[in-house]
Amino acid sequence: MNTSGVNSKHTKNAPPSGIWGAVLLPINSSGCIDWGALVEEIEILCGSNLSGVYSNGTAGEFYNQTDAEFEKISGILSDAAKKFNMPFQIGVSNSNPRVARFRLKQAVDLSPNGIQFTLPDWWPPSSYEIKTFLTGMQEVCENIPLVLYNPPHSKVKISLRDIAELRELAPSFVGAKLAGGDNKWYEELQNTLPDFSVFVPGHKVAFGRPLGAEGSYSNMACLSPNGAVRHWHLINSNLEVAVELEYRTNRFFEQYIFPLSNKETLSNQALDKLLAAIGGWGPVGPKLLWPYASADASDVVRISKAARSELPEYF
To answer: What's the predicted TM-score (pTM) here?
Structure first.
C-alpha cells in the first residue's frame, strides 16, 4: 500500500523518476469502456508502491478515445491520485496537434504532476514545425512538467541532440520516454542531457539505470505494479541479481510474448493488456477497443502459468 512517505520526494513540478504504471482500459462485453472497473483498477494502481500513474499512453489506447472519454478518464485518475496522494501524469497525445494542445489546456485544470505528449503524427512534422508545436505546448502548460513520448514507431525519431535544442525553447520540457540504446547512446545522454529524465522500457531498465535512465513508464508494471517496483529497488540494492532477473524477463518475452506480435500481428498495446491479464492484479482483460485485435483467453491461461514459473519474483 502506498504511503505519504513513498511520495514525499515528489514535489509538484519535479522531474519524474522511478517506476510509473499505465492506466489500461477495461472493456465490457459490449465493447465499451467499463467505467466501474476502470475506477477499481485506477484505485489499485494509486494504492500500489509505484512512483506514479499515468493515463492515455499507447497502452491506454489514447488514439481510440472520444473527447468525452478522454475527459472522463482524466477526471477519474485525478480524483483517485489525489485521494491516495499518488503523483499522476495525463497523456494528451493526438495526431491533431490542435486537439493535443486543447487537451493540455483541459488537463492543467486537474493539476497533474506532468503531461505526456507525442509529436503530431499524421504528417511527419519538420524541425521548424516541431519547435513551433513544443513552443505552443509550453505556452499553455502553466509550468507543469512536459514529457515527450517518442516510441520506435513514431514517424519522426527525436535524437538526444534534438531534445537538447528543444529544451532551450521549453523550460517545462523535463523528460522523455525513449527506446534507450547501447552504452554509446547512454554516454551521449550523459554528455548532452545530464539533468534530463529519460525513461526506458521496463524490460530494459536494469541495463539503463546504472548508465543514466531515471526510470520507466513500465510495461512490467502492466504485468505486476509492485513487482516492477521490487525490481527497480533491486537495481539499487543488488544490481547483479536485478540484471539476471531482467535477462530471464527478456527470455520470457522472446519465448511467449513477442511471438504473438510476429505470428498474430498483435500490437504493443495488445501485448501490454495481455501482461495485465496475466498478472491478474486488477479488473483488466486483454480486450482492446474496436477494431483492434487482442490476445485470447487461451493465451492468458497458458502464459500465466509460464510467468509464475519463470518469473516468480514479480508475483
So the answer is: 0.94
pLDDT, tens digit (0-9, with 9 covering 90-100), for 111-126:
999 999 999 999 999 9
User: Which residues are CB-neighbours of 248 under 8 A, at least 6 positions away?
Assistant: 310, 311
| CB-facing half-sphere around the CA of 87: CA atoms within 13 A | 26
pLDDT at 2: 42
pLDDT over 90 (residue 264): no
Q: 52 vs 4, 90, 264, 305, CA distance in Å?
A: 12, 11, 32, 28
Give CA–CA dist 90/231, Å, rounded. Answer: 25
Q: Please, which pLDDT band fits residue 12 given cuts at 50, 70 and 90?
A: low
CA-CA distance, 274 to 165, in Å (whole number)? 38
Which fold would CATH assign to domain 4-224?
Answer: TIM Barrel (3.20.20)
Can you tell me the distance from the alpha carbon of 207 to that of 105, in angstroms, rounded to the nearest whole number?
36
pLDDT tens-digit map of 154-199: 999 999 999 999 999 999 999 999 999 999 999 999 999 999 999 9
Sign of the alpha-carbon torsion through 83, 86, 87, 88: negative
- Those residues with Cβ within 8 angstroms of residue 55's Cβ, 6 or more apart along the chain or in another chain: 22, 23, 73, 74, 77, 88, 89, 90, 91
Query: Within 10 A of 259 (CB to CB), how many other CB atoms are there?
Result: 12
Domain spans in the chain, listed from the N-terminal domain onward: 4-224
Helices 268-279/297-310 angle, 10° precision: 70
Instruction: Say how far apart CA 287 and CA 121 lie, in whole Å.
Output: 25
